[in-house]
Give the backbone structure.
Amino acid sequence: MFKYGLQLIVGIFILVASAFIAWYEGSALTYKTLEWGYSTPFSKLFNIEIANGHDISQLDYFVYAAKFSPLFPAIMIVSIFYIFSVIGYYLIKFKPNLAIGFWGLIGCIMILFSSFIFNAATGGGKIIWCITSGSGLISIAVALFVSLRKFKHKANVTQIKL
Protein backbone atom coordinates (compact mmCIF):
# COMPACT_ATOMS: atom_id res chain seq x y z
CA MET A 1 0.00 0.00 0.00
CA PHE A 2 2.88 2.36 0.78
CA LYS A 3 4.32 2.07 -2.72
CA TYR A 4 0.99 3.12 -4.26
CA GLY A 5 0.69 6.09 -1.91
CA LEU A 6 4.23 7.20 -2.64
CA GLN A 7 3.65 7.00 -6.39
CA LEU A 8 0.44 9.02 -6.03
CA ILE A 9 2.27 11.69 -4.03
CA VAL A 10 5.03 11.93 -6.65
CA GLY A 11 2.44 12.08 -9.46
CA ILE A 12 0.47 14.80 -7.71
CA PHE A 13 3.64 16.79 -7.03
CA ILE A 14 4.63 16.63 -10.70
CA LEU A 15 1.08 17.59 -11.70
CA VAL A 16 1.04 20.64 -9.43
CA ALA A 17 4.53 21.79 -10.45
CA SER A 18 3.82 21.43 -14.16
CA ALA A 19 0.42 23.11 -13.76
CA PHE A 20 2.04 26.09 -12.08
CA ILE A 21 4.67 26.38 -14.83
CA ALA A 22 2.07 25.96 -17.60
CA TRP A 23 -0.13 28.60 -15.96
CA TYR A 24 2.85 30.95 -15.83
CA GLU A 25 3.72 30.31 -19.48
CA GLY A 26 0.11 30.83 -20.50
CA SER A 27 -0.09 34.14 -18.70
CA ALA A 28 1.65 35.64 -21.73
CA LEU A 29 -1.83 35.62 -23.27
CA THR A 30 -2.67 38.80 -21.36
CA TYR A 31 -0.29 40.73 -23.62
CA LYS A 32 -1.11 38.98 -26.93
CA THR A 33 -4.26 40.82 -27.97
CA LEU A 34 -4.38 39.11 -31.37
CA GLU A 35 -4.81 35.71 -29.65
CA TRP A 36 -7.75 36.76 -27.48
CA GLY A 37 -10.23 35.70 -30.14
CA TYR A 38 -8.66 32.28 -30.67
CA SER A 39 -7.23 31.19 -27.31
CA THR A 40 -9.95 32.17 -24.84
CA PRO A 41 -12.64 29.47 -24.99
CA PHE A 42 -13.33 29.55 -21.26
CA SER A 43 -13.82 33.31 -21.22
CA LYS A 44 -16.31 32.88 -24.06
CA LEU A 45 -17.99 30.00 -22.25
CA PHE A 46 -18.44 32.11 -19.11
CA ASN A 47 -19.58 35.13 -21.21
CA ILE A 48 -16.70 37.29 -20.03
CA GLU A 49 -16.20 40.41 -22.11
CA ILE A 50 -12.46 40.93 -22.56
CA ALA A 51 -11.59 44.61 -22.40
CA ASN A 52 -8.03 44.13 -21.17
CA GLY A 53 -5.74 41.24 -20.38
CA HIS A 54 -6.86 40.98 -16.76
CA ASP A 55 -10.40 40.01 -17.82
CA ILE A 56 -9.22 36.71 -19.30
CA SER A 57 -10.16 33.55 -17.39
CA GLN A 58 -7.24 31.81 -15.70
CA LEU A 59 -8.20 28.57 -17.45
CA ASP A 60 -7.49 30.19 -20.79
CA TYR A 61 -3.86 30.45 -19.77
CA PHE A 62 -3.64 26.66 -19.96
CA VAL A 63 -5.21 26.69 -23.44
CA TYR A 64 -2.66 29.24 -24.64
CA ALA A 65 0.21 27.30 -23.06
CA ALA A 66 -1.00 24.07 -24.68
CA LYS A 67 -1.11 25.74 -28.08
CA PHE A 68 2.23 27.51 -28.03
CA SER A 69 4.33 25.97 -25.21
CA PRO A 70 3.07 22.39 -24.96
CA LEU A 71 5.82 20.84 -22.82
CA PHE A 72 4.33 21.47 -19.39
CA PRO A 73 0.69 20.96 -20.39
CA ALA A 74 1.80 17.63 -21.88
CA ILE A 75 3.56 16.78 -18.61
CA MET A 76 0.32 17.67 -16.81
CA ILE A 77 -1.69 15.25 -18.94
CA VAL A 78 0.90 12.49 -18.60
CA SER A 79 1.02 12.93 -14.82
CA ILE A 80 -2.79 12.81 -14.61
CA PHE A 81 -2.74 9.61 -16.65
CA TYR A 82 0.02 8.25 -14.39
CA ILE A 83 -2.05 8.99 -11.29
CA PHE A 84 -5.04 7.23 -12.83
CA SER A 85 -2.79 4.33 -13.87
CA VAL A 86 -1.57 3.83 -10.30
CA ILE A 87 -5.17 3.83 -9.07
CA GLY A 88 -6.18 1.50 -11.90
CA TYR A 89 -3.34 -0.92 -11.20
CA TYR A 90 -4.35 -1.03 -7.55
CA LEU A 91 -7.93 -1.77 -8.61
CA ILE A 92 -6.79 -4.53 -10.98
CA LYS A 93 -4.96 -6.24 -8.14
CA PHE A 94 -7.68 -5.95 -5.51
CA LYS A 95 -11.02 -5.16 -7.22
CA PRO A 96 -10.97 -6.36 -10.84
CA ASN A 97 -14.70 -5.75 -11.41
CA LEU A 98 -14.29 -2.09 -10.51
CA ALA A 99 -11.07 -1.86 -12.53
CA ILE A 100 -12.82 -2.69 -15.81
CA GLY A 101 -15.26 0.17 -15.43
CA PHE A 102 -12.56 2.53 -14.17
CA TRP A 103 -10.22 1.93 -17.10
CA GLY A 104 -13.10 2.10 -19.58
CA LEU A 105 -14.29 5.42 -18.10
CA ILE A 106 -10.79 6.91 -18.18
CA GLY A 107 -10.38 5.76 -21.79
CA CYS A 108 -13.68 7.30 -22.85
CA ILE A 109 -12.89 10.60 -21.10
CA MET A 110 -9.46 10.79 -22.73
CA ILE A 111 -10.85 10.03 -26.19
CA LEU A 112 -13.66 12.54 -25.68
CA PHE A 113 -11.11 15.17 -24.64
CA SER A 114 -8.95 14.38 -27.66
CA SER A 115 -11.97 14.72 -29.96
CA PHE A 116 -12.32 18.37 -28.90
CA ILE A 117 -8.83 19.14 -30.20
CA PHE A 118 -8.82 16.81 -33.20
CA ASN A 119 -8.33 19.54 -35.82
CA ALA A 120 -5.74 21.52 -33.89
CA ALA A 121 -3.97 24.08 -36.04
CA THR A 122 -0.90 24.47 -33.84
CA GLY A 123 1.89 22.03 -33.17
CA GLY A 124 1.14 22.09 -29.46
CA GLY A 125 -2.46 21.12 -30.08
CA LYS A 126 -1.36 18.18 -32.21
CA ILE A 127 1.01 17.00 -29.48
CA ILE A 128 -1.74 17.20 -26.86
CA TRP A 129 -4.10 15.34 -29.21
CA CYS A 130 -1.57 12.53 -29.67
CA ILE A 131 -1.04 12.18 -25.92
CA THR A 132 -4.73 12.19 -25.02
CA SER A 133 -5.86 9.87 -27.79
CA GLY A 134 -2.98 7.48 -27.11
CA SER A 135 -3.78 7.46 -23.39
CA GLY A 136 -7.43 6.82 -24.15
CA LEU A 137 -6.64 3.90 -26.43
CA ILE A 138 -4.26 2.42 -23.86
CA SER A 139 -6.94 2.71 -21.16
CA ILE A 140 -9.55 1.00 -23.30
CA ALA A 141 -7.06 -1.74 -24.18
CA VAL A 142 -6.33 -2.31 -20.48
CA ALA A 143 -10.09 -2.50 -19.73
CA LEU A 144 -10.53 -5.07 -22.50
CA PHE A 145 -7.52 -7.06 -21.32
CA VAL A 146 -8.75 -7.16 -17.72
CA SER A 147 -12.26 -8.17 -18.78
CA LEU A 148 -10.94 -10.91 -21.09
CA ARG A 149 -8.66 -12.18 -18.35
CA LYS A 150 -11.58 -12.24 -15.94
CA PHE A 151 -13.77 -14.00 -18.51
CA LYS A 152 -11.06 -16.60 -19.16
CA HIS A 153 -10.60 -17.16 -15.43
CA LYS A 154 -14.36 -17.55 -15.01
CA ALA A 155 -14.49 -20.07 -17.89
CA ASN A 156 -11.67 -22.11 -16.32
CA VAL A 157 -13.45 -22.19 -12.96
CA THR A 158 -16.68 -23.33 -14.65
CA GLN A 159 -14.86 -26.16 -16.47
CA ILE A 160 -13.25 -27.32 -13.23
CA LYS A 161 -16.64 -27.50 -11.49
CA LEU A 162 -18.14 -29.62 -14.28
User: Anything to note?
Assistant: The chain has a mean pLDDT of 90. The two ends are 38 Å apart (CA to CA).
